[in-house]
Design brief:
The structure is a single chain. The protein has about 750 residues and is an alpha/beta fold. It has three domains: about 40-245 and about 255-370, Rossmann fold (3-Layer(aba) Sandwich); about 385-535 and about 575-635; about 665-695 and about 700-745, no CATH class. Helix content is about 60%, strand content about 10%. The chain has helices at about 5-30, 45-60, 75-85, 90-95, 125-150, 155-160, 175-180, 195-205, 230-235, 265, 270-280, 280-290, 300-310, 330-340, 340-365, 370-400, 405-445, 450-480, 490-500, 505-510, 540, 545-555, 565-670, 700-720, 735-740; strands spanning about 65-70, 100-105, 110-115, 120-125, 165-170, 180-185, 210-215, 240-245, 250-255, 260, 295-300, 725, 735. It has a nine-stranded mixed β-sheet with strand order 4-3-5-2-6-1-7-8-11. A hairpin with a 4-residue loop joins β3 and β4 (about 120-125). α16 (about 370-400) packs across α19 (about 490-500) and α16 (about 370-400) packs antiparallel against α23 (about 565-670). The longest helix has about 100 residues, at about 565-670. The radius of gyration is 53 Å and the shape is rod-shaped. The two termini are about 30 Å apart.
Length: about 750
């Protein structure tokens, strides 16, 4: 049977489910991001929101009534759960005292689930396997807490150890839970060393639970610390049932040494009266007077035994039935009446919507947190860096593809142009010195060997040194003139500037390392005696001496012409033909030396400089290319990572805003509905609605405009209602006076 309440639950569930998808995608994007990503610290609160929305959606979709059971350790909470469910749930009590919430609900088959803070879920069908998993997890958590004891920060499992268990679900055959739709939630003892249960309860169940049951033994009833945090609990729940767990078999020692029934067995009402008179605080007394707090003395062990065995009340005590107020049936009846009351329906709708509002508000504060703003700023910076690195990478790629050897070859022609005129002057001076040396030789008594070795040799060596000095100077001028002495285009200059490659700096470094050693010695013999014509003397003719013997007699041995020759003999025997021949031989040797010297010096300087500069340039470009490639890849990774997270956050923000508006639509549609109408069947299983829910897909701006239109439609619909009537969503007009007599959901506060 479809009712107005089930319709509300379906619409509410659809809103929440549409929000859970972007929530999960955003959390997964943050999980896969780098550890240093801004906003990654939002994973725990996002997981919390996801968990709480899932729990809320489950509660509303299945119209569940959460009944929280809390109290000190060993107070009888698990025994109460056995009694309420009329099913043996000893698995709960046998669990180690793990600090998590335990949910018990009806199912056809037994099944157990563990949910961790990461959102991971493990399912078990064997209780032994469940106990083993929890026991192992308990040891791991305890170890993490011990490590955190040395830290000043409080240990939060959601942040410090997300593998910790957040909740355990027990689903087992419990017919009475199925009838009432109740889900019992067992919390860890309030005085557990790891008090996560209470903290989580106050967070997860604010405006979400129908009521709470506080279980305390009579031994602890008068301890103030048991009720230290009770005032806050009174603010959280519209109804609290205080169950005082008595031991109806307990006996005291009489003065005569006999054992007699204790006060718990004989008259448990007097214990409650003493508590109300002597120990109850003002907030508790006020809540009791308002009917929000009721106290029940119950022998839970007896009640659980009777419920599980199917025996009538009091059968286990030999028929000694306790007073109605002390009976379990009284407590169970009041709890059942409350869960079936219109007051609960008001609380169910109102609490669900208020819980959704608070979660939407909490989610809004998360997606607008400073960490997200910081991430957006970092993303913009990464985007700019990525664009710059892309440009730089393109420039470096062009530099790597450039034919630098050809570029450096252009330096040779540049150097030739610079050296041509000056090198010619050096050659002229050397030529004049050599020619003058021949003329001076004819006026001296020096040997031909002296002329070759001691005169021509130094002149030619000096020529080499002077030419080398000039070529080095010319090279330095060409290099320091800019662009390392090579010709480049404007596009190439732009790529160099973009890449941060300074040719001038490379050229200067190469010049600083320039070291040229030319293995070119002056020729030992520029003028060979065998090439010089010598006039024969009288005896040469008489003795028939050949030209060779004549030259040897005049100059000395061909390989060492060391004979001193008088100037007169030189003039007589050599004369003008000898001088001309010597000058011609000298010119030929000189030109060969000048050409070889110039070519080898230029090549040596260019090769030394180019090898150094080119090696530095190619190495620098390769190094920069490798570095920029890595940097570009890292920036690309960061950009993709940022974009993935921010895109999911943007979708989540849009979905959150749309969900908030949609929840507002539910307030308008169901907030003032008569609770008696909620369980009535709908005509044709459909309610004719004057106000449709806002679609979850609306973007924030569009959704806001749609909300305005909905408000205008509401006002128009209300104007159409008759005097003294208010329109209800199923088309039924209810008198305003009758509607005002019913408690409205919006008026219900916790």
């Amino acid at each position: 049977m479809r009712t107005l309440l089930s319709q509300f639950c379906e619409e509410f569930d659809a809103i929440v489910q549409d929000l859970l998808a972007p929530l999960g995608e955003t959390t997964r994007a943050l999980d896969s991001a780098s550890d240093d990503l801004s906003g990654r610290e939002l994973r725990p609160p996002l997981r919390d929101i996801t968990h709480m929305l899932q729990a809320l959606a489950e509660k509303v979709a299945e119209q569940q009534a959460y009944v929280l059971i809390f109290g000190p350790l060993k107070s009888g909470k698990s025994t109460l759960m056995n009694a309420l469910s009329a099913s043996y749930v000893s698995e709960v009590s046998s669990l180690p005292a793990y600090p998590c919430m335990v949910y018990v609900s009806h199912a056809e088959k037994r099944e157990y689930q563990i949910t961790r803070y990461t959102g991971a879920v493990e399912t078990f069908t064997d209780p032994a396997a469940l106990h083993l998993a929890i026991h192992r997890a308990h040891g791991e958590l305890a170890e993490q807490i011990r490590k955190a004891d040395n830290s000043e920060n409080l240990f939060d499992p959601a942040i410090d150890y997300p593998k910790a268990i957040r909740r355990v679900d027990f689903k087992l055959p419990a017919g009475e839970l199925a009838e009432s739709g109740a889900v019992m939630v067992d919390t860890p003892g309030l005085y557990s060393r790891m008090k996560f249960g209470y903290d989580r309860m106050t967070r997860d169940f604010r405006n979400a639970a129908a009521c709470a049951i506080f279980v305390v033994k009579t031994d602890n009833l008068f301890l103030e610390q048991v009720f230290e945090e009770f005032n806050e609990l009174l603010e959280l729940f519209s109804r609290i049932f205080l169950v005082v767990n008595i031991d109806s078999t307990k006996r005291d020692l009489a003065p005569d040494g006999q054992l007699r029934p204790s006060l718990e067995q004989a008259d448990p009402k007097r214990i409650i009266e003493a508590f109300e008179t002597l120990a109850m605080s003002a907030p508790l007394k006020a809540a009791a007077e308002d009917g929000r707090l009721k106290i029940y003395p119950v022998d839970l062990l007896q009640a659980a035994s009777e419920r599980l065995s199917g025996l009538p009340q009091g059968a286990t005590m030999g028929g000694d039935v306790a007073a109605p107020r002390a009976s379990f049936s009284s407590f169970q009846g009041d709890l059942t009446d409350y869960l079936n009351s219109t007051e609960y329906l008001i609380a169910f709708l109102g609490d669900s919507l208020r819980r959704a509002d608070s979660l939407m508000e909490e989610l809004g504060s998360i997606v607008e947190s400073p960490a997200i703003e910081k991430l957006r700023i970092e993303h913009d910076a990464v985007k700019q860096d990525l664009e710059r690195s892309g440009t730089k990478l393109g420039a470096l790629t062009s530099l790597q593809n450039e034919d630098w050897e050809a570029r450096f070859l252009s330096l040779a022609s540049n150097l030739d142009k610079r050296a041509a005129e000056h090198a010619s002057r050096i050659e002229q001076r050397s030529t004049a010195a050599l020619t003058g040396a021949v003329e001076a030789w004819f006026r001296s008594n020096d040997s031909l060997d002296f002329l070759n070795r001691d005169v021509f040799g130094p002149v030619l060596s000096g020529h080499k040194e002077e030419l080398g000095v000039f070529l080095e100077k010319a090279l330095r001028e060409a290099v320091t003139g800019g662009d390392a002495g090579i010709g480049i285009t404007s596009a190439l200059r732009k790529n160099l500037a973009t890449s941060g490659v300074d040719l001038a700096e490379i050229g200067s470094a190469a010049l600083a390392e320039l070291e040229v050693t030319l293995d070119l010695a002056a020729p030992a013999t520029c003028i060979a005696g065998g090439d010089i014509p010598v006039k024969k003397g009288f005896w040469d003719w008489i003795l028939f001496r050949g030209q060779g013997r004549v030259r040897a007699k005049l100059f000395g041995p061909a390989n060492r012409p060391t004979h001193s020759i008088l100037a007169a003999a030189k003039a007589k025997r050599l004369g003008k033909p000898g001088r001309t021949s010597m000058l011609n031989s000298l010119a030929e040797s000189r030109e060969q030396f000048f050409e070889a010297c110039s070519a080898q010096l230029r090549e040596a300087f260019l090769e030394a400089y180019s090898a150094s500069a080119l090696g530095t340039l190619e190495s620098l470009v390769a190094h920069k290319f490798e570095g920029v490639t890595r940097r570009h890849a890292d920036l690309q990774r960061q950009f993709t990572e940022h974009r993935l997270v921010l895109d999911n956050l943007d979708r989540l923000t849009s979905a959150s805003e749309a969900a908030s508006i949609a929840v507002g639509g539910l307030w308008q549609q169901y907030g003032d509905t008569d609770p008696h109408l909620l369980k009535l069947p709908l005509e044709g299983d459909k309610v004719e609605q004057d106000r449709d829910l806002l679609p979850i897909e609306l973007v924030p701006v569009a959704a806001a405009e749609a909300a305005k239109e909905v408000q205008l439609e509401l006002e128009e619909d209300q104007d159409e209602a008759g005097p003294g009537e208010i329109l209800i969503d199923n088309g039924t007009a209810v008198a305003r006076e009758e509607q005002a007599a019913q408690p409205g959901i919006r008026d219900n506060t916790n």
